[in-house]
Amino acid sequence: MILTILSVLLIISGIFFFFTATVGLLRFPDFYCRMQATGKGDTLGALLCLSGIAVYNLSDGFTLSSVLVSIKIMLIAFFIFIANPTATHAITRAGLNAGVKPLMKEDLQK
């Protein structure tokens, strides 16, 4: 029962961070702000959702198969935790090399 409640809380908080990343993607003014919002929000959202799924998998009992599946899910979460910021950095660097200019304070005053 406690593990189920914990997993639901983790999944709901992960969905919240996915939602805020989507709002940041739609509302932020330039490419670099949007990349920061999606990079951070998606990484944390995926980490929390996958952690919730791993905990929920353990709520039926601590059998060997459920523990192994939860470990695999956490390994996927670890891979996303490493790969997503790296991909966001590479996309942002490519935008900088392509000549995408960041929005400056002077641009907002026009």
Task: Please describe the topology of this protein.
Elements: H1 2-27, H2 31-58, H3 64-97, H4 105-108
Percent of sequence in beta strands: under 5%
Which runs of at least 5 residues are low in confidence (pLDDT < 50)? none
The count of domains is 1
Count of strand segments: 0
The average pLDDT is 94
The residue fraction in helices comes out at over 70%
Measured distance between first and last alpha carbons:
57 Å
Largest sheet: none
What would the principal axes of the Cα set say about the shape?
elongated
Question: How does this structure look, described?
Answer:
The chain has 110 residues and is mostly helical. It has one domain. It has helices spanning 2-27, 31-58, 64-97, 105-108. Helix 1 runs antiparallel to helix 2 and helix 2 (31-58) packs antiparallel against helix 3 (64-97). The protein is elongated. The N and C termini lie far apart (57 Å). The model has no long low-confidence stretch (mean pLDDT 94).
List keywords for this structure.
110 residues; mainly alpha; 4 helices; 84% helix
Give me a quick take on this structure.
The protein is an all-alpha fold and 110 residues long. It contains 4 helices and no strands.
